[in-house]
Write a structure and sequence with these properties.
alpha/beta; six-stranded parallel sheet; about 45% helix
C-alpha cells in the first residue's frame, strides 16, 4: 500500500541527526488523532541531515580560532544547539546566557565565543552553500543528502507516493533549490539552474518520487528565501508546487506551498509579495506565533516552528485528508450490470 512520504530538511546550527525527533513525534500524534489511522501505517517519515557536509570544516575553523581550550565549549554549544532544535527552551536559554561570556580562561583574545560559534554556523553554512554558484562541490554535497533521503522514502512509501516537505530556515533555501533543480532536469523550468549534477543524480533512481514529480506540499518554516531571492532579477522564479504530474497519479490529494512565518522572527518574511510568480506559487503566507508566550515575542522564536502544534496540526490535517482521498481512489468500484 502506498504511503504518504514526509521529508524534514533542517537549517543551520544543527549538529545532531535527531533534530526532528520532537517534530516527528508531534506529527505522528496529530495525524493519528485526526485521521483515525496509525501514522506508522500511513506515513513514511525521513530526515535529510546535511549538516555533516560542513561540520568538519566548521569545527576545524572554530578550533583554529579559539584554540584547544575552547574545543570543549564548542562541543557543549553543539549539544545545546541540538537540544534547542528539538524544542528545549532550557537549552535555548543556556545558549543565550552563554552569549554574555566575553572570554574563556586561557584564550583572552577570543572574545564572545558563543557569538563566534553562531556566526561560524549561521553565516558559514549560508556562505558555503551559496558558493555553489561558482564551485558546486559543497552545494552538490548538501543536495546528495536530500537525494539519499528521497531515495529512502521511495523505498518505504512507494515510488509514486505523494511527498510533503517540511523545511526550516536555510533548509527552505536548500529544499527549494534541490527540487527546482529536479524540475529543471524534468523540463518544467528552463532557466535559473544548471539542473541536477551527476553526483546528485547517482543517488536517485528513475522513479516519479525521485524525479520530484510527486511533490505535493511544501512548508517553508522561518524562511530566509526572500533574502536569497535578491540574487536574481526581480527576485527570480520560484519552485512549482504541487508538481503538475502529481494530479495525474493522485488526482484528489491536492497540494500547496504554505510559507509559515512569525513576525517576531527577523529571519523569516512573507514570500507572496516578492513578485507575481511567487504570488501564484505560494498559496499562503501563514502568520503564526511560535514558542512559549514569554519567549515568542522575541527573535528567539526562530528555532521553534516544527516543534509547535500550531504549525504541525494544519500539516497533519492536510495529510490526513490526502490519505483518506488516496484510499477512496484505490477502493474497488462496484459495477451494476443490467
Amino acid at each position: 500500500m502506498t504511503k504518504l512520504a514526509v521529508m524534514w530538511v533542517h537549517g543551520v546550527e544543527i549538529a545532531d541527526s535527531r533534530f526532528a525527533d520532537t517534530s516527528i513525534a508531534l506529527l505522528r500524534e496529530e495525524f493519528t488523532r485526526i485521521a483515525g489511522v496509525d501514522a506508522d501505517d500511513a506515513l513514511a517519515l525521513h530526515t535529510a541531515f546535511w549538516a555533516p557536509e560542513y561540520e568538519r570544516r566548521q569545527d576545524t575553523l572554530l578550533r583554529r580560532m579559539g584554540g584547544a581550550r575552547a574545543e570543549g565549549v564548542f562541543d557543549l554549544l553543539d549539544s545545546l544547539g541540538g537540544a534547542a532544535d528539538r524544542g528545549s527552551v532550557g537549552a535555548l536559554l543556556g545558549l543565550v546566557a552563554s552569549g554574555l561570556v566575553r572570554s574563556l580562561p586561557g584564550t583572552p583574545d577570543f572574545h564572545f565565543p558563543t557569538l563566534r560559534w553562531l556566526i561560524v554556523h549561521y553565516l558559514g553554512d549560508a556562505i558555503s552553500y551559496q558558493a555553489g554558484a561558482v564551485d558546486r562541490t559543497l552545494y552538490d554535497g548538501v543536495h546528495r543528502h536530500l537525494a539519499q533521503c528521497l531515495h529512502d522514502l521511495a523505498g518505504e512509501a512507494g515510488t509514486d507516493a505523494p511527498l510533503c516537505v517540511l523545511a526550516h530556515s536555510l533548509g527552505t533555501v536548500v529544499a527549494s533549490n534541490f527540487f527546482y533543480d529536479l524540475q529543471v532536469a524534468g523540463g518544467l523550468h528552463t532557466s535559473g539552474s544548471a539542473g541536477v549534477s551527476p553526483e546528485v543524480a547517482d543517488e536517485l533512481d528513475d522513479t516519479p518520487l525521485e524525479r520530484g514529480e510527486t511533490l505535493g506540499w511544501f512548508h517553508t518554516l522561518g524562511s530566509p528565501l526572500a533574502l536569497f531571492a535578491q540574487r536574481h532579477p526581480d527576485f527570480g522564479t520560484p519552485l512549482t508546487v504541487p508538481h503538475p504530474a502529481l494530479a495525474q497519479r493522485h488526482p484528489r490529494v491536492g497540494g500547496e506551498w504554505v510559507n509559515v512565518w512569525d513576525p517576531d522572527d527577523v529571519i523569516s518574511s512573507p514570500l507572496r509579495p516578492l513578485n507575481g510568480a511567487y504570488g501564484d506559487a505560494v498559496a499562503e503566507d501563514r502568520t503564526v506565533h511560535v514558542a512559549p508566550w514569554w519567549l515568542g515575542w522575541t527573535p528567539l522564536a526562530h528555532p521553534f516552528y516544527w516543534n509547535d502544534v500550531r504549525v504541525i496540526r494544519p500539516i497533519a490535517t492536510q495529510l490526513a485528508m490526502a490519505w483518506h482521498r488516496m484510499q477512496d481512489d484505490a477502493a474497488p468500484r462496484s459495477v451494476t450490470v443490467g
